[in-house]
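Below sits my pick:
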Amino acid sequence: MDRKIIEIVQTIDTSQVFTDLSDAQSGGICVFVGTVREFTQGEAVVSLEFETYEKMALKEMDKIASDALEKWKLNKVIIRHAVGLKKVEEPVVVVGASSAHRDACFEACRYLIDTLKETVPIWKKEVFENKAVWVSAHP
């Protein structure tokens, strides 16, 4: 049984996440889905574009997942991030954890998304009607 699902994808299917995290030993599954919002600092967003250094990103995502599995004694972890052009309301990232008890998967889920945003080399360009801006500097 693979306890970690670590992927860079073109499209995220949110309906698959429960199946990915389901485990007979788990009494709790916690999932965070990040999507493209309509406005950023009062400006209408047309789309977001994500780029990554995939080999390094997958390595760092695997490290984050391994750390979470160990720290919270999780049964399964998922970290899946999309690349390419994404429209408003489209999912761009999903992280999740399953564990025997809810506290562990809630805490782990927060750790997964926060650490991903801080350390994984994925870059985001916000596209507005009259400009495009690269944001979220990563290593």
